[in-house]
Amino acid sequence: MRKSLSNKLFASFLTVILLSLSMVGFISYFQASAELDKSSEKSIAQVIRSASYQTDLYLQNYEKASDSILSYNQVKEFLDMDPENSYSYYQYTNDIQKYLFRSLFILYPQINLIYVIGEHGKAISDDNSNQAHSLKFHPQERYRFLSEHTPESGRITILNTNVMNEGDKNIITMVRRIRGLASYRPKGIVAIEFKAEDLARIWEPLDLGQGGSYFIMDEFGKLLYRAEGNKNYSELSAEHIQNVFQHPNDSIVEKVDGKEYLFVSRKSDYSNWQLVVSIPVGELRKPISTIRTTTLVVGALTLVGTLLLAIWFGRSITKPILILKEGMRETEKGRWRRLEMNGRQDELGGLMRSYNLMVTRLSEMIERVYEAELTTQKEALERHQAEFQALQLQINPHYLYNTLETIKCYAVVQDSDEITEIVEAMAFMLRYSIQTNLEEIRIANELNHVLSYMTILKHRIGREFEIDVVIPPTLLLAKMVRLTLQPLIENIFQHAFPEGIEDRHYIRIDARIEGDRFLVFIEDNGAGMSHERLVKLREKLNLNQLADTEGDSLYHTGGIGLMNVHRRIQMVFGEQYGLSVESVENEGTRLILSMPAE
């Protein structure tokens, strides 16, 4: 089923519009998504950097407290004392607890516990309460444990541990080595315990949105602190924590309990802690959802508007073509009707003007034929004149319909260059075909008419096809009858190549003078004719009659059939001239136009 031009135009516009909108929407959405993701990660990274800085300041306060302990002489003397001297141990314990530890508790109320352990196995400790703290741990074992994790350089180490290694897991211990009074070699360890929940005061102002949370890991990948009341990480496994730990100063996406989270971490240069913020990916991409919705709404409105414009534009093209097609149908029925131009100045307007000119001239010729029939008494002349005019009227619009279909296709997929080429060729053929003089035509004129036909045919069949013209230049101005060469070429294209044109196919036009005759040869290597069909065709030619327009389509396809070409030559030059046919099935056909030599 053939599709109408308006449907083709609409489908083409719809394809282009949908492709454009989808590509623009696709690129805009993913570009905006990527930029928003980067912006979100950058904002979160800034939040972490700020919180990390505040956390480092918080830890530096405890470092100052440890500096006070390291510089306290009685602490150094305690490390150098004889472990068997119980009185000295008692005295140092009392003085250090009373004058040093109590002062630090006042200055740093967040401290939970302070203790000093010497390598001799003695320890002094105190908690942030009104009474002295009794030792609840084995000093020597604790000293060995802390020594394994504390460098001798005196650098601070922060551990997620406490003296009991049980109970409150949110206890953080700051540990460092300490020298005695008489030696530069570390002879003890000072440790300050404080609650990690105090860090929450630094993080409380952070607005991480609904579902966002944070936690802190030490330099070994252990959790130091996790925000209380956060239920989003009930399924946070050791594997998840390890994956985050292996990407310091980076961001990764992990699926926790079936939900994707963005983890952004920053490592502190001071404490070697890794501070991690996690936010559900869905919350981060809420702006993307808004962009997507907006894009869809705007795209839908744009699609509706452009489709309406496409319908209007398509109708502006198809309407004059339909008018021209309807006019041709009326012409085919013998009803001559001029077309309304409506001021069109484009290629279609030129085609409509050529059609109106053809109709006008054909109408004038018919009127002149009728006048000649009424005024002349020479029946033979009247009969020939009527045959001349009748032949001129037998231009079948079917070829014009096919050409218009070609114009329709190029109106969709090509720019105006091809359309202009087709219309100009068609206009030339129309102007050439409606001229009434038959004899004063040169073979060069007919070849030019064939060239216009081939220009249009090139676009109809979608490929180039060159006709071999081997006529000697001296014969290009020889006389022949108008509209005899192009119908034969058209007949070859319609019947000689039923399976389509191939590279091996050719059409050759030649001419020569033999005796008193001027002969034009049109040869092809197409399908040829069967012997029965060739005999039948020769019988038709011998009748010397015009072809019936409703007769055998084999001899009339294309507007002016073989029979009419034969008869037109006879009416101009005499019945001893005309068209002859030679053909061999599956080898080709040779058409010979016989006319008198000048």
UniProtKB/TrEMBL annotation:
Segments traversing the membrane: 295-314
Pfam families recorded: dCache_1 (PF02743), HAMP (PF00672), HATPase_c (PF02518), His_kinase (PF06580)
Record domain HAMP: where: 315-367
Keywords assigned by UniProt, alphabetized: ATP-binding, Cell membrane, Coiled coil, Kinase, Membrane, Nucleotide-binding, Phosphoprotein, Transferase, Transmembrane, Transmembrane helix, Two-component regulatory system
Enzyme Commission number(s): 2.7.13.3
Membrane topology (UniProt): Multi-pass membrane protein
Record domain Histidine kinase: where: 412-598
Locations listed in the record: Cell membrane
SUPFAM superfamilies (UniProt xref): ATPase domain of HSP90 chaperone/DNA topoisomerase II/histidine kinase, HAMP domain-like
Entry-linked Gene3D superfamilies: 6.10.340.10, Histidine kinase-like ATPase, C-terminal domain (3.30.565.10), PAS domain (3.30.450.20)
Cited InterPro entries: Bact_2-comp_sensor_kinase (IPR050640), dCache_1 (IPR033479), HAMP_dom (IPR003660), HATPase_C_sf (IPR036890), HATPase_dom (IPR003594), His_kinase_dom (IPR005467), Sig_transdc_His_kin_internal (IPR010559)
Main localisation: membrane
Catalytic activity, reaction form: ATP + protein L-histidine = ADP + protein N-phospho-L-histidine
Gene Ontology terms for molecular function: kinase activity
Ranges in coiled-coil conformation: 367-394
PROSITE patterns, alphabetized: HAMP (PS50885), HIS_KIN (PS50109)
PANTHER family the UniProt entry points to: SENSOR HISTIDINE KINASE YPDA (PTHR34220), SENSOR PROTEIN KINASE HPTS (PTHR34220:SF11)
Protein name, per record: histidine kinase
